[in-house]
């Protein structure tokens, strides 16, 4: 198997399994040996609480593995490699930099002629660990090896990261209940599922402006027609992603009672609500009594506060 094929296989393995468990780490280390010709190799994770590394897998002698774990990060040369963010070979270092504990305790006493250190980072830039490989053959690692390590770097970093990757908001579109659409700049609507209902939040809905104003997700409850919908809106670089699903009305309210509550929360009087809904003021009064009883609220103001806590849109 060529080094490129080995790197591709390792990349697929990392994306499926990561490397945090002992078995996975050993498999990753073995895969790396097929990519990086070396006499000793170690994959280490950084512990930010203890301020040290921990080797997940290592073929270095125990005393050298201990140095990699406990002391390597204190060497100024390590700081230089970390700042570059790229795989760095011994031969890549200026001659005046080839000194310090890494050279005096690891490289020179053990006859290593070359080697590579790669600092690994999570997707958000956090340092999460490192790869070290040392060789007795000055021909390795060659330029192709360095290029393959650079290719593998993001996947190795993601595999070492203890923070699980965020689940995209659109992941729920496959649950069979949630539908969604994107409101792009200019009001253009892009469907994200089979049955989106953009009329629920059609521009110029004030909720769209609210989402962009707060710069974060907004969740609301909306009565539309004869149904109640939970609306979630998320600002993105390409517009506002809107997810929606039909839900039962809270507190055992009917859809009509929820409509009345939304109007009460908006400050409307019984007469004003009656005019909008096309019913009598006494009927609205009865609905208000039912709302207060079902929500356990004693006043219209308390009911309006309850509606606000639900994110009920007027």
Question: Helices and strands in order, then pairings?
Answer:
Blueprint: H1 3-17, H2 22-35, E1 40-47, E2 52-58, H3 62-70, H4 76-84, E3 88-89, H5 101-107, E4 114-121, E5 127-135, H6 143-160, E6 179-183, E7 189-191, H7 206-214, E8 218-224, E9 227-236, E10 239-246, H8 255-265, H9 270-277, H10 281-295, H11 300-310
Antiparallel strand pairs: 1-2, 1-5, 3-4, 4-5, 6-7, 6-10, 8-9, 9-10
Helix pairs in contact: 1-2, 1-6, 8-10, 8-11, 9-10
Question: How does this structure look, described?
Answer:
With 314 residues, the chain is an alpha+beta fold. It folds into two domains: 3-160, Beta-Lactamase (2-Layer Sandwich), CATH 3.30.450; 170-310, Arc Repressor Mutant, subunit A. It is 40% helix and 21% strand. The chain has helices at residues 3-17, 22-35, 62-70, 76-84, 101-107, 143-160, 206-214, 255-265, 270-277, 281-295, 300-310; strands at 40-47, 52-58, 88-89, 114-121, 127-135, 179-183, 189-191, 218-224, 227-236, 239-246. The strands form two sheets. A five-stranded antiparallel sheet has the order 2-1-5-4-3, with helices on both faces. Helix 1 runs parallel beside helix 6 (143-160), helix 8 packs across helix 10 (281-295) and helix 9 packs across helix 10 (281-295). The protein is elongated and about 95 Å long. The mean pLDDT is 91.
